[in-house]
Amino acid sequence: EIDLAVHSLKDVPVVFEKGLDLACITKRADVRDTFLSVKFPDLMSLPKGAKVGTTSLRRSMQLKLKRQDLDTESLRGNVQTRLKKLECGEFDAIILAEAGLQRLEIQG
């Protein structure tokens, strides 16, 4: 049993379980995604076949629309774990939600 849940609206179901209500929607955080890379300044400078990590199908599809030649792969873990994977060279770049970086006071 719970008294209160706070969740990202994109993950909230359309139909709620009995006894649950959507009580309020808070002010929306930054909606942008952020490109992060140790070696490359931006998306267009990535070489063909570069490995780009992302946590969402939406971001992966948007990347493919812009750069079909990139290898998009699922990126799991909390933000710190994702950043560590980038720093260790598991990915050439990663795409993260700017709002998540701001909440942790990380400059993107």
Brief characterization of the structure:
With 108 residues, the chain is an alpha/beta fold. The chain contains 3 helices and 4 strands, in the order ββαβαβα.
Main attributes?
single chain; 108 residues; alpha/beta; D-Maltodextrin-Binding Protein, domain 2; four-stranded mixed beta sheet; 3 helices; 4 strands; 16% strand; elongated
What does this protein look like?
The chain has 108 residues and is an alpha/beta fold. Strands 1-4-2-3 form a four-stranded mixed sheet, sandwiched between helices. The model has no long low-confidence stretch (mean pLDDT 91). It is built from three helices and four strands, in the order E-E-H-E-H-E-H.
Looking at CATH, the homologous superfamily of the domain at 29-103 is Periplasmic binding protein-like II
Which H/E pattern describes the elements?
EEHEHEH
Distance between the termini: 37 Å
Instruction: Give the percentage of residues in beta strands.
Output: 15-25%
Protein name: Hydroxymethylbilane synthase
Subunit structure: Monomer.
Domain Porphobilinogen deaminase N-terminal: 1-106
Enzyme class: transferase
